[in-house]
Amino acid sequence: MKLKILLLVTIVFFSCKQQTKSIPLYIGTYTSGDSEGIYKLLFNTETGELKDLSLAATIDNPSFITYSPNKKNIYAVGEGDDGTVSSFKVEEAGTLQLINKVKSHGGAPCHISTNKEGNKLATSNYVGGNMALYDIKEDGSLNEASQVFDHNSLEQKSHVHSAQFYKNNLFVADLGRNAMYLYKKESNNNYKLKDSSIVKFTKNAGPRHFALTNNGDFIYIINEYASTITTAKKVGDSYELINHTSTLSKDYSGENSCADIHLSKNERFIYGSNRGENSIAVFKRNTETGTIEKIQNVPVHGDWPRNFTLDPTGKFLLVANKKSSNISVFSVDASSGELSFLNDIALPNPVCLLF
């Protein structure tokens, strides 16, 4: 009897362990080719293997997707002339059930994010040149936009590319205006512009995406046109420029457009993607001074790496290669931060990866 119980416990233990190895990875795509919307894969957090591809939701051009903080919902932009923002419920089987869809109030929405409390959502409209804020209801559905901030001027066209909440702040990267905006939350929970240029960029740098340290003391902004990362340190209510660092190999002379940027969990390393050189640039970070030093440019084994992500364990980095229609998986060296290619999987037009 005791032997049977021990055997049963052993089977249950190893069954649970096997299940925890695999976690869902959702993929946003462009649907102009063979893609039909948002896909799901299972990712093995011990081996780095991707398998069991399935269509999670049919939607046009979900080029950027994000979770609600409790992971019960996924929000997606519909990147088109008449932009949309959709809310989905994550079903038990991993499929996505549409809750509702609202207007993005600008053409070509390309980024979406929620605040930590899960009651506010920001959408960046690239062609519209504006950023829209939404209130999230308890059931995960979206109200129509509560605020829309237009960055366009008579002299300069805006291309808002990403926005992130941090405590009572909302940071916005505007590639067209070559600027980082800062909005502050007021007592009525609305946001108000505090600064339209928190740090100075080189001419036509093109700030696209950015990463903040956990304490908010440093910000790292990847510049699409200049192929650089701008490093700045918080001083009072603003940020002070430290430097601009190239993302490219010294021997690369072709055209390039940077895309995405991420900090490692321990904040010792920074990663950025190069479209053109088709590489991930790896930087070592001084956690005290905030300065960065490039230590590696690793080929992505694909073409046009738009978005990439680190898995929840921090042991793997995955890259969405848009033009070659594949996702590449790299192992991360815990001590050096350097990447080693493991494998890849085919998937049509992947542009956003979400754990």
UniProtKB/TrEMBL annotation:
Keywords: Carbohydrate metabolism, Glucose metabolism
Chloroplast among keywords: no
Domain of life: Bacteria
GO MF, any single term: 6-phosphogluconolactonase activity
Positions of transmembrane segments: none
Keyword Coiled coil attached: no
GO cellular component, one term: cytosol
GO terms (BP aspect): glucose metabolic process
Family, similarity comment: Belongs to the cycloisomerase 2 family.
Protein name according to UniProt: 6-phosphogluconolactonase
